[in-house]
Write a structure and sequence with these properties.
Elements (H helix, E strand, L loop, with lengths): L3 E4 L12 H4 L3 H19 L5 H11 L5 H9 L7 H13 L3 E6 L3 H11 L1 H8 L4 E4 H4 L6 H11 L6 E5 L2 H9 L3 E4 L15
Parallel strand pairs: 1-2, 1-4, 2-3, 4-5
Helix pairs in contact: 2-3, 6-7
Length: about 200
């Protein structure tokens, strides 16, 4: 029996265009950035880099681009939060049928942009649906590390087998399953989080 649900944010509630930043970069730029780009992103998502340092490091990778241009590029993947998903989250929260948690790999720039783009009121409505709102850059852990799932379970006294994790990235769902959490790998474009009840 499922008593607890842990949700991803991007492409589960918030629409994303994950390839948008990369379409603005040339193949040569991406090739030269290589693993360094991944390392910088990982450090930023776990709070090891602050935003000014992140933008500075990005500027060293992608020379000739201004800080403002890099920030716009970085945020270009973030789209909208559909009202039907927000209402779904509110209805699920108000039903008090499950303990609800959010667990997102994200960063300070993205969260600030989301707040500004969807409006602080809608952002707070969404955030208030969850008992805990875990952002990777605030807790210093990110998916698919198994440690982040153990952290959520232990901090909230959750039983893994009674917990469902929903994410659009298979690697993240598989990591959750390894610690005993049930998983739904949501297929973006084919499934929607508003169909959750058919999965419970």
């Amino acid at each position: 029996m499922i008593n607890n649900i842990i949700f991803d944010f991007g492409d589960v509630f918030l629409n994303l265009d994950k390839s948008a930043p990369y379409r603005s970069l040339s193949e040569q730029e991406l090739f030269e950035a290589g693993p360094e780009l991944y390392a910088i992103n990982s450090a930023y998502e776990t709070g090891s880099l602050d935003s000014p340092t992140f933008i500075k490091r990005m500027g060293q990778l992608f020379k000739g681009r201004s800080s403002h241009e890099l920030e716009l590029l970085w945020n270009s993947m973030l789209l909208d939060l559909p009202e039907e998903r927000l209402k779904f989250a509110e209805e699920l929260s108000n039903s008090a049928s499950y303990r609800l948690f959010l667990l997102s790999n994200t960063n300070e720039l993205h969260i600030s942009h989301v707040m500004a783009s969807i409006g602080r009121d809608r952002y707070n409505r969404f955030r208030n649906c969850f008992e805990q709102f875990y952002l990777s850059h605030e807790i210093g852990l990110r998916k698919p590390e198994e440690a982040v799932f153990r952290f959520v379970l232990e901090e909230n006294g959750l039983i893994a087998e009674e917990t469902l994790f929903v994410d659009d990235t298979l690697e993240h769902v598989e990591a959750a399953r390894r610690v005993g959490i049930q998983g739904w790998h949501l297929q973006v474009g084919k499934e929607d989080i508003t169909e959750l009840k058919s999965r419970l």
